[in-house]
Amino acid sequence: MNERAEVPLVAIIGPTASGKSTLGVWLSERLNGEVIACDSTQLYRGFNIGTAKPSDAERRGVPHHLLDVLEGAEEATAGAYREWAVATLEDLRTRKKLPIFTVGTGLYLRVLLEGLADVPQRSEQLRERLRESAAEHGSGYLHGVLRRLDAVSSLRIAPTDEQKLIRAIEVCLLAQRPLSEVYQSGRKPLRGWRAVKIGLAPGRERLIERIHARTKEMLAAGWLEEVRTLLQQGVAEHAKGFDFIGYRELQEVLAGRMQLEEAREAIQQATRRYAKRQVTWFRREHGVEWLNGFGDEERIQKQALEKIRAVAGDP
User: Fold this and answer.
1) pLDDT average per 10 residues of sequence, the chain (315 residues)
2) 124-182: which CATH number, 1.10.10.10, 3.30.930.10, 1.20.1250.20, 1.10.20.140?
3) Domain definitions of the chain by residue range
4) Span 7-116+187-312: which CATH code?
5) Contact at 8 Å (CB) between 39 and 105?
6) How far is CA 198 from each of CA 6, 14, 202, rounded to the nearest angstrom?
7) What pTM, to 2 d.p., does this model score?
């Protein structure tokens, strides 16, 4: 790869359980590539099963980057992710490897490619007022506030994700305009790279079946024990990592406040809703080559390979 020329990077996008990780490894094996995770949940060390972090066996010897870089109590930000990703890209460029991003967090990909917006600094005083209001008014209050301030941003943030809701409302109030507009200002796009975006679009019913089956597989693989181990290791029960889908429910199981079957159903429902939000976000992404299927299907893998080679040649 010529450092002065624009070179390709691949971004595989799609909802959870669509097979992005499998496709990323398959393509890496054929295109001299390495995988870069683009998922806010997979940044966290120890939170493995519930975040669908690929195991060593699933990686099949393909190097994976930007996994396990944060402790459970630390906070992930799009800005920090961009810094890590840019450094990783330069390393891969030097070694003449094709970067293949597996994208679960659409915002991170957008910030990487388009740059970080000029957003206001945090206000702890405002944040505390918002926390107090949320405690007073109950579940759904913050999401309702954000929906009135910025309907676009409310579509991509879960009603239960208090941290992201507070930050979004904070930006809207301090900037006096919607967060979605703020994100379009002051950006410095990524230079020297040409993104080839491959989108996985399995049918809704098939995706729901996959989500339900995968949840059962995760529980059978020891997800509950993973939560127990994290708590025993001293990760605070209110740490950011426990906000990810399923982890809070399994805490409730361990505390005896919820039955495992009840937790499984709640996790499946939350995952379905998350997948729907991802689809909504990714459908607004420009320049995506959409494939109607899962990333572990041979037909889809071959189509993805053909499209990448048609756009980027044989890296």
Assistant:
1) 72 98 98 97 97 97 98 89 97 97 96 84 88 90 94 90 91 88 77 96 97 98 98 94 96 97 98 96 95 98 96 70
2) 1.10.20.140
3) 7-116+187-312, 124-182
4) 3.40.50.300
5) yes
6) 19, 9, 13
7) 0.81
